[in-house]
Each structure stands twice: as structure tokens, then as C-alpha cells.
Amino acid sequence: MQSTVKLFLVLCLTWTALSPSALSAAQSATVRVILPPFGTLDPVALSPADQTGRDLVENLFAGLTRYDPLTKQIVPALAESWSVSPDGLEWTFRLRDAQWVRVQNGVVVPVRPIVAGDFVFALRRACDAPPPNPAAKTVFVISGCRKIATTNPLLVDDLFIARELGVRVVNLRTLALRLEFPAPMLPFMLALPEFRPVPRESVSLAAENSDWAVPSAMLSSGAYALAERDAQSLTLLRNPFWHDRTGNIEQVTVAFAPSESAADLFISQSADFARLSRESATQLAMSAPESLISMPSAAVILLGFAAERPVTMREELRRALALSIDRNALAQQLSGTVPTWRLTTPAVAAVALQSEAGIFSPQAAKAQLIAAGYAACRLPERLELVIEDTPRMEALANALFAQWQANLGCNAQNFRLTKRSTEVVRRLADGTFSTIRTTDPIRPHMWLFTWSPDYLDVTAWTGDGAHCRYGFLKSYVPCGEADQLVNAALLESDLARRAELVEQAERRYFGENGTFPVVPLLTELRFAARRPNLQGVSAAAPLWFAAWSR
What is the DSSP string of 57-93? Predict the structure, then answer.
């Protein structure tokens, strides 16, 4: 409690010790935000787990497109318009008239136009093998990017990159991208930080691998510019040259605090918005429930299988285990989650998607167990389930074991629980452990893994997740009808039709007669605290301050 009080005093001093210009802005429309500490403001170097960094970059740096968290649609950002070649491989973007800006003497001023060459510089930097480079390899969709990133760095120079990379300047305000394969979902991918331009002059001012995202050096292209920054806080000022704006927030002052302190600080009237952990959300629910908001995130907790094992190779067994799971009961036992039967979550539903509480049929599950040849759960070997070594995952695993005992007639001896690090579980889910090399361990029968896709298109969930060849989650279930539907969705440019194809695929994966390469169980909720007079807030995606108003 003493450390929380000290932190509160520091934050109060931070928010009151502003420059005269900042105080003037505060008298018009200011919000005070509490976020966990961040890792970097360099768009290309952002970790998928650095939520605060992504929140800030979303407002400081613009891409060709932007994901609107309120409408759940992709909208143009720095791209005014674009066209696609008949083969789907060449995309040409016309840039809007936009400016790099910086804060001088408390005022946002233009520095120079944003041009196509800024994207070329940034994408060369993203594809080059030496850091910084993206943790997620979505940039490999651009022709030549993978080759550049995986070639011996001693052989990679400017000439090599210029020859291989499918990015070129048509003119100052026209950019052309050549892709490795047709990708109608490219506008969704381009909204990711790693595709955004960065100012060459800002990067060049900094020493090698040092932080150039400081007010004295950084140029911004987004709806806000960086005015002040220190270890405890930063201040953003509205960019008056930004083309699109729905809110009225002139200034955003962000203080960094551990998530476990966020509820205390919010309750003490020191903030307008705060991202919360599950624990701090529970605390706020007891003291100020009207301020608590919760939204489904992109993170899905799922049960995965190794179909190369003789037992879990049997489709009927996987189906039996899946149909005997009561997801509603799991959600009641695991706080901060909601049940899901599909990979696609409400966080991405830009078009209407049918929803179900989850297929739960113990009778059908027992019939499938008999069809697999394992009546009364007489299995030929114990099924090993590997989980992350956390109390939360252990509780979920034990709940699954209890349901299988109650609904399938299994007993405790049918299953074995093994705890491993998050990285090991990730490698198991991704099939990084080879089933051919004898030096690698044999994968266990099952694992629990929390997965979310890189970008917010409907095909990302199913295509990047469960697809037999391209999915991250490697079950090694043979390709089938569901995968063919995903293939069609990957080539479909119409969003509504794409969602329809994905829904059909998910029913073949996860419906009553599904193949169940994996079993979606629960969607993680994301929590935040918000003053009732603050409008336009969505916490399910990176925060977009330009839509906020009060």
C-alpha cells in the first residue's frame, strides 16, 4: 500500500507539472491515462505482447490503413486510395497529402510531407536481417522480404535489397508493393505497426540501436505528436494536420504504472482511463462497477492435438473429447473469459457472424468414443496434456479432466498433466518439435495454448490458425473440406463473402461433425476503467485517442 501511495504522489506531480502550453490545452479537452510500462515506440520492433507500445504507436505513427476499433473495419489512413493488378500481386497506393510533424515550443508544427520513399526506407529496415525487425513475420508477404531477412547478412547490402524487395516509388505520392502471393487481406495487414513508415532523419540522428523516439528527435505521422517523455510519463498533443478526426481530445497525458496499481489510481480520481488486469478489474467491480468495461480480445484459449500420435490421430476421439466439453462451465471457473466454439472472436467481427454457446453433447461424445474403439474410455495409453506452468492453466486442465470423467466415463488414470514454460508450449503448438528428427522429443497428445492472430481480418483466425498447411497451430490433421474453404476465403476480396466462407470452414472444423484439429474453448476478456463522460473508447484493440471525446 505504501508503494501505491508513493506512485500516486509521483503521478499527481507528473500531471500537474506541465508546461504553460500544456496547461492551456488541458483547459480545453485533456484525458489522463494509466497504462503499464512499454518496451519501445519503434513500430518495427514492437513485440506482440507490448500492448502499451502498440497503444502509443497507434496514435503517433500512421500506416497506409488503420483498423477502426469502433466499427471493426479497415479505413484508409495515409493511403488515399489503392488499386490491385488482375493477378492480385501488384498493389499501388496513392498517398494523401500528409505531413511529418513535431512539437516545438508546445505547438505541433509541420516539418515535411510524407512521401513514398518513407515507406521504402521503413520496409527495407523491417526486412533486413539485423535488428530492429518485426517479431511477427507478416512483412514476408512482400516479395523478396523473406529472402532478404534469411540471407547471410554479409551478403546483404543496399544493392541486394533494392534488387530483391518488391517495394518501389512510382512518384512522390505513389507507392507500389509487389507480393509473394495474392493476399486480399493485405489492407488488414498494412494496419500493423511493422508496415508503417518511420522518418529517416529521426532514425539517423540516434546512435546505433539507441532510442530515437524522443521529443527532440522524433517526427510523428499520426493523429498525435510526442510533446514530453520521461521514465514515468509522456504527453501527446493533437496533430491539427491529421486528416480525420471524430473526437475532441487535444492532449493525452499517459502515466505508467503496474497493472495491479491501476484500479487504486483510477479510483483515487487521478485518471480518466486505465487498462486493467483481471485482478484489478475485480477490485474495481466492487468499488466502481459503473466505470468498468470489458471486451472480448483476440486471444483464444484452445486445446490442441498431435495427430501424428496413433490415439489422437483418430478423428472420432478428438471429436469425443471436444463434444464432451461444457464451455459455459469452464468460463464460470476461469475468471475473465467467455466461451467460444470458434477461433474468430467478436473482436474482429466486421460483418455479422452467427454465434453459438458451443456444441456440448455428452451423448454424442460417448457415441464418438465408441466409434473410435474406446468404449467406456478404455484408452490404450494415458493421454498427456501439456500446459503453461501457471495456476490458471492448471485450473483449466483439471476442469477438463473432471468433465471428461463425468461426461465420457474416463478416470484420473486416463490422463497425465505436464507443466512446461510458455515457450515450450508455443513450440509444441506450432509443431517446431520435429516428428521426424530423433533428436527432438515426441510431441505429447494434447496441449493448452493461448493464441491470437497477427492481424484483424476474419481469415487470419482460421487461415493463420487451424489451416492444415499454413496455420500456426500444427495438428497434422490431413487437409480437407474446411481447408479448401479457407483457401477460397484467402483469395476472396469481398469481406462479407470472405466471412461467410470462414464461417463454413469453422463449422467443418469445430461443428458437431468437425475434424477438430484444435478445440477453441474460451476467449480472454480485456478490461479497462473509464470515466462515464469519456466517449468513443474501445479497449479491445490498440487505443485510438482521436475518436475519444468528453
Answer: HHHH---SEEEETTTTEEEESSEEEEEE-TTS-EEEE
Distance CA 172, CA 257 (A): 42
Structural domains of the chain ordered from first start: 2-272+531-547 (3.40.190.10), 297-525 (3.10.105.10)
Determine the residue type at 105.
N
Rounded to whole angstroms, how far apart are CA atoms 343 and 501? 14
Helix (H) / strand (E) containing 338: strand 337-339
Residues 468-491, mean pLDDT to the nearest whole number: 91
What local confidence, expressed as pLDDT, does residue 28 receive? 59
Quote the CA–CA distance of 70 and 78 in Å, as a whole number: 19
Q: Please say whether the beta carbons of 257 and 275 come within 8 A.
A: no
Say whether pLDDT at 4 is over 70.
no
Q: Per mean pLDDT, which range of 2-6, 162-166, 183-187, 419-423 is the poorest?
A: 2-6
Say whether pTM exceeds 0.70: yes
At 372, list the grid cell.
473410435
**How high does pLDDT run on average in the chain?**
88
Q: Where are the beta strands (DSSP E) in 215-310?
A: 224-229, 233-238, 251-256, 273-276, 292-305
User: What is d(CA 76, CA 95) in angstroms, rounded to the nearest whole number?
Assistant: 10
Report the DSSP beta bridge partners of residue 35.
256
Please tell me whether residue 454 adopts helix, strand or coil conformation: coil
Q: What is the pLDDT of residues 163-172, one digit of tens each?
A: 999 999 999 9
Q: Which amino acid is at 69?
A: P
